[in-house]
Amino acid sequence: MWFITPMRTILLIAAAALLIGAAPAKKLLTPNDIVAAAPASAWKTIPADDLMVMDLANGGRVVVQLAPAFAPVHVANIKALARGKYWDGATVYRVQDNYVAQWGLNESDKPWPSGVTAKPPAEYTRAVGGLAITPLGSPDPYAPGAGFADGWPVAYNAREGWADLTHCYGSVGVGRDLSPDTGTGGELYAVIGHGPRQLDRNIAVVGRVIDGIDKLSTLPRGTEALGFYKDKAQFVPIASIRIAADLPVGERPSYETMDTASASFAEYLKLRANRHDDFYIRPAGGVDLCNVQVPVRKKA
Amino acid sequence: MWFITPMRTILLIAAAALLIGAAPAKKLLTPNDIVAAAPASAWKTIPADDLMVMDLANGGRVVVQLAPAFAPVHVANIKALARGKYWDGATVYRVQDNYVAQWGLNESDKPWPSGVTAKPPAEYTRAVGGLAITPLGSPDPYAPGAGFADGWPVAYNAREGWADLTHCYGSVGVGRDLSPDTGTGGELYAVIGHGPRQLDRNIAVVGRVIDGIDKLSTLPRGTEALGFYKDKAQFVPIASIRIAADLPVGERPSYETMDTASASFAEYLKLRANRHDDFYIRPAGGVDLCNVQVPVRKKA
């Protein structure tokens, strides 16, 4: 039913119900049905200290879940930068179609706030040990293994002992100069196109946009090389970037993410790889990592 | 160098040149370097009869390359619809983030122009025989094989004998109702997010956007279910949809696509899977099909 209009859908469903009469056929579940039916135990609240709230001057809000278990020093830097109000006066200055939207101070000499590690380690992978991974169950072109750990899409190599957060739609990473630079966290980007996984293990991934990605994905594309805006007048001003835990209690947004070790997620994953609901004729029998977005929802 | 700003890049390159002195190191090529250096013989002009030119009323132009070798009846329909000016008065009426932008007449009872097959066959796959496929060289989660045929990304099953055009960023498909409906071609969508390959072999893919995808990807997202715009006032008017061959000679846009059987494309593909230029520390050693966009360029 993905490609038909609501009114026609309603009429078709009504017609189907009439045909079926008193003995309704078993409804074929969609991945969204699984999400809607998941018990409270299948959800985990995201700590307010791991939510970065970016308010654009135009009123749009973008919320990023940070991943301290994967890039602890970079994430600590991002929290220190937010707490030091480093990004006051920052902008979105680069938007490249099918790639990334990038923000920060762009070549500023503004000093780092206290608590910022100027040269973090290259947190591009972490030890696979200690992660409880739900395997994807399909081959991954980028690594021997792929799956989900504590709500995050990961690729891994058990033999070599590493795992990494992958570049999927919405993933947030740290801009850096050429190696050995690893980036501080002052310049961040969000993926707004097909997952550019060639960047995996080459850059620090620090989280993912969990709300408001459209405030970035709909921005005009920059016309300079790599999607940089040509004129400063095109830069999109950022009003503030704060950590949710630092906002007044009544103003804190709150979210929960599906537990990727839950039975609900296992069923969701299975259906993402095997769509057999009304619209689908041929289930794929497989799925790629970035095509299984871990469900996230806002809490009241 | 993807994440650094132009000025800093220039300074770094200048510094590197100074360090290297009179014996410059061998430059590590990027995929774009291969495209820039490809000889004329590596390019094929796209026939003007296979270019669909959509002009939005706001001045934006979107150009679609049609794929008659994969969905001949649907593509013939699209040409007949354009030639019959069926889409005069059409709109973009649905934009779903990380999924599709969809356009057409949306529930109109407007009669089909002459030459339109009202119920095309399900052109969701074609025979793999007759296609010269350059293999991707990496595993594909959706099919036993994946690669490139005559400029198109394809998945295939040699044993079962089928191949299909895949849903990658920019792919254009035909909206349809529930099966057995196959869609006529009157309602079309373009992918504006991570390739939704679960749709492969479930819907007719008829081409891909080769220019102006940003005119669709930057549109506001619809707030109704599946990204439909809530109010007709939000619909984005289309001024005209024409086939390039029908435009006056001086007004025809012209494009060429890299020959996916060429040595240049083989090198491009290899580098897409193994980035080892300045920015990259760890080449992936693999790549997914949709992350290898076949190069296309405008002809003067």
Give a short summary of the structure.
2 copies of one chain form a homodimer. Chain A is of the alpha+beta class and 300 residues long.
Keywords:
300 residues, globular, five-stranded antiparallel sheet, eight-stranded antiparallel β-barrel, 25% strand, alpha+beta, disordered N terminus
Largest interface: A-B, 70 and 71 residues
Oligomer: homodimer
Q: How much helix is in the residues of chain A?
A: 10-25%
Which structural class do you get from the secondary structure elements of chain A?
A: alpha+beta
Given as residue ranges, the uncertain stretches of chain A (5+ residues, pLDDT < 50) are 1-23
Question: What is the radius of gyration of chain A?
Answer: 21 Å
Mean pLDDT of chain A: 92
> Number of DSSP strands of chain A?
16
Q: Name the shape of chain A in a single word.
A: globular
**What fraction strand of chain A?**
25-35%
The separation of the N and C termini of chain A measures 29 Å
Alpha plus pi helix count of chain A? 5
Q: In this structure, how is the largest beta sheet of chain A organized?
A: 8 strands, antiparallel, barrel
Order of SSEs of chain A, N→C? Answer: HHEEEHEEEEEEEEEEHEEHE
Strand order of the largest sheet of chain A: 2-3-13-11-12-5-4-14
What does this structure look like?
The structure is a homodimer of 300-residue chains. The first copy, chain A, is α+β, with helices and mostly antiparallel strands. Chain A has helices at 6-20, 31-37, 72-83, 214-217, 263-273, and strands at residues 43-45, 51-56, 61-66, 91-95, 100-104, 126-127, 133-135, 145-149, 152-157, 162-165, 171-174, 188-191, 205-211, 236-243, 255-258, 296-298. The first copy, chain A, has 5 helices and 16 strands. In chain A, the strands form 3 sheets. Chain A has an 8-stranded antiparallel beta barrel with strand order 2-3-13-11-12-5-4-14. Chain A has a 5-stranded antiparallel sheet with strand order 6-10-9-8-7, with no helix packed on it. The first copy, chain A, has a 3-stranded antiparallel sheet with strand order 1-15-16, with no helix packed on it. In chain A, a hairpin with a 4-residue loop joins strand 4 (91-95) and strand 5. In chain A, helix 2 runs antiparallel to helix 5 (263-273). Chain A is globular, with a radius of gyration of 21 Å. The two termini of chain A are 29 Å apart. The model of chain A is unreliable at 1-23 (pLDDT under 50). At the A-B interface, helix 1 of A face helix 1 of B.
